[in-house]
Amino acid sequence: xxxxxKMAVIGFGQRGYCFAEMxxxxxxxxxxxxxxxxxxxxxxFARELDITDIPSFDSVEELIAKxxxxxxxxxxxxxxxxxxxxxxxxxxxxxxxxxxxxxxxEECRDIIRSVQGNKCQLQIGFVLRHHPxxxxxxxxxxxxxxxxxxxxxxTEHIGVMHGASYMRRWHRKSANSGGxxxxxxxxxxxxISAVANSPAVKVASFGSTDFFTPDKQKYQYCSLCPDENxxxxxxxxMVRMSETEKAAPSAQAKPFDLCVxxxxxxxxxxQVALIDFANGVKATFTLNLFAAVPKRTICVAGTExxxxxxxxxxxxxxxxxxxxxxxxxDCKSENASxxxxxxxxxxxxxxxxxxxxxxxxxxxKAGLSSTVIGNAIxxxxxxxxxxxxxxxxxxx
Length: 396
Hints:
The structure is a single chain. By secondary structure, this protein is an alpha/beta fold. It has three domains: about 5-125, NAD(P)-binding Rossmann-like Domain (Rossmann fold, 3-Layer(aba) Sandwich), CATH 3.40.50; about 130-210 and about 265-395, 2-Layer Sandwich (Dihydrodipicolinate Reductase, domain 2), CATH 3.30.360; about 215-255, no CATH class. The chain is built from twelve helices and 15 strands. The protein has a nine-stranded mixed sheet with strand order 14-13-12-11-7-10-9-8-15. Helix 1 crosses helix 11, helix 6 (about 130-140) crosses helix 8 and helix 8 (about 180-195) crosses helix 12. The model has no long low-confidence stretch (mean pLDDT about 95).
């Protein structure tokens, strides 16, 4: 009989719900526990997924003491990653930790030391490594298909309501996540670093809040505002709520209902970053929150060819400067899971790595690197200076 990995999901929000649903269907895994502090949310989502027979715990401590699981998927808010991951490690459980690994590099190092000390597997949630477009981009650039890579231009175009949600959710405070780029765009930092295939040594950044400003706020909560035609009126986008939460008064239990123009935030609504890598590759990243078509794009310029990729079109185009030829590569997803089909492949890799005792494909080195660069970018933005990243920042 094929072994099934016993798994727990810690944090039953949008991502936790998605992973629970995928684990339930996975042939090599078994969902054996849920950890969610809100009993109402846990009960509601368990009914939706038809998993009411699975034990639910309201704290990590209770889960570890009483739960029957070998591996945990941690989808808690970013500032809770550190303590939860270390608690699971000390209990000898393997971990899939959502991105970013942690808001600070020192917290990442603590997690790494705990993982190594307790001989656990740790996979970081950079699911876009499995996206057909980015998987192929990394393959082409590392194989030398573009010649020597010199420049990378990357942009994340976030959909209007998705971007606005960061102005009203817990992400609106940098202390909770390390800043917008680390919280949302650590995926992009990771892909850029994978393409550059070298540690970043220097960064600069400019970003500010120039649209979601408090002077435009009329009411504190959308549910109290009479403007039914407001472009950013909250209708449940990007969050998963129980029926009780949906019906609750905004000021008491619906923080996601907060007006996007609130004065209770310190994150940016647009930003650019410049990254210099040790091997000479130069990269730029641009954050845009007002896209009609959500997508990520990347342009990689090499000495023999230039590559352009677009996740919305799911194609890679290569213009060869030696032959003048243009090549177009179809990168359509093979499944319908989240992040362009990446989530399902990513979860399977995590499960297989534990059952087969293989090294995780996206390990703690990628998690630490992304946070180190993200912290440096935020420091550069706040200080208006070029920030150097010494080699020891990548060590633990």
